[in-house]
Task: structure prediction
Amino acid sequence: MKRIWFLIILLLPLKVYAIDYDITKFKIDAHVDINGDMTVNECIIQTGNFNGFKRDILYNSDSIYSASDITDIRVYTANINCDIINEMTLVNNGSLGSTGYYEKNNINNQLSLKMYNYANNESKGYYISYKLLDVALLHNDVGEVYWNFIGKDFQDPLNDVSIQLTLPNNDDSIKVWAHGPLSGEVKSISNGLVATISSVKEYTFIDTRMTFNRNQIINAKKNTHQDQLKTILKEEISAADKANKLRKYDNIKYYIIKGIDVLTIILTIFIIGYTIYIINKHFKKDKNPLPVKYYREFPTEDTPSNVEYLINHRVSVKSFSAEISNLIRKKLITVSPLNKKEYLLTKSTNNEELSKSDNILMNLLFNTIGNSKEVSTKEIRNYPTSNSRAVKFNNQYLKWKTVVENESTKKNYFENQTKLKYKKGLFLSIFFLLGIVFMAIGSIIGILLSIISFVCMLIIILNFKRTTEGNNYYYQWIGLKNFMLDFSNMSDKELPEITLWEKYLVYATMFGIAKSVEKVLKVKIEANPEYYHNFNSFIFLTSNLTSSINNSVSKAYSSTSSNLSSGTGSGGGFSSGGGGGGGGGGGGGF
Result:
């Protein structure tokens, strides 16, 4: 049994390969012999992480231009300069991670080579040599070679592609064409053609066509016994005219897109400036009316949640904790310690009328979490541990938050600017849609217009401005917060009356500074116990209570969130059309 496991382990691949590569060069040198055969040498440079490359060569597609067979197949490893390093070894089954081996199959007139050449963030090359029989074609007036060197089944984008096709001797009557992407270029040389293109998208073919003096391939076997040059020229002129029209269209489109890009930038700058103008004119906050940094009194009788809404235009879980402490301060909830960190909250028999938001809070504490009369801080903290409880907690919390925000809105601390926001938001949405249209046309910069328009739209919609009364109260409450933050730097004579400390603690919870205020309280009590001995406020004397409530509510809210998440032949550019020659095939890395 141990031997079996040992063999299994040996047979398993030892590495896992993340395939990520580019074809950085594809070079083809092809030479036509006097008998019409064509010898082809291909060099493919692959860069990145890969196990190898697969090359498919379709040599017979039932076209008059097809080859009759493929022979003399040799496969080599090569360096980035396309110099041969070593000949690869033919095997029946190669293995991932190996180098120097290849598999070969010849089925349905297509040669398939799977070459193993493992690389880890490096460049490696393949040099393939083969002979295609009976490629060239004799006509009465000219000889012709029409071959698809890169087939439409190539699954990888290619870079730095060059194809050189030559004849046995120089020929002044040679005419050349190439078909494929319009960015390619083909030119005639003394004994053939050279076609080049910087990049080719995946699944894009490139073929070349060449006519020449028929005496160059006088021994070729294929012969149409017809005059064909006029027909070929007619086909290629038609293809070139079509390609030139497409180029003209592409040039017009290019300048249109460039113009749109410039317009997009101008509009983006305008939108940013427009948004700044709107904010300054309609949403600019009024200056602080207070002559001093501190405000010692409570500005209004607003609840902690009302005050947070005034300051932030929203209500958070901090106010939820503060409102519980406020109900304790108002004797609507009584407290008794269970240990140093945990407390029992008991619903008071006090019949003082509660607000709608207080009723929701009390119901959540005592009816949803507690036993209708009592609830501990630990029970609050641990309640939303299941999905069903989290849903209940979240629903009631959101209900409380909505009611509080509605109650706060009625105080008219903020200007009603709904119509203004609607108009400006609608105006900016036009630019947002315009950016999408620009992107559809082809302007990548159009995305900038859409993003900036959307962001500016949100800024205007989410912005708010306080009324004069709201602004005055805002700075008074901020002044009170500053006053509480500096308690530790004040002498006993400067501190507020001890009977107010309980209220300070409640609002300190909403401000998020309860721990700082509690710390000062402890220091002052320890330093002057005789001054405070007559004070018997439970929330004040038991300073851990505020922290315990705040901690329990914060943990419960966090648990809730986590449980709810789950042409003419003289050369030039490539022509459109094509694809009628022999050859083809594809390839791709693995």
Remarks:
- The CA atoms of residues 39 and 183 lie 27 Å apart.
- The first helix runs from residue 2 to 11.
- The first strand starts at residue 20 and ends at 32.
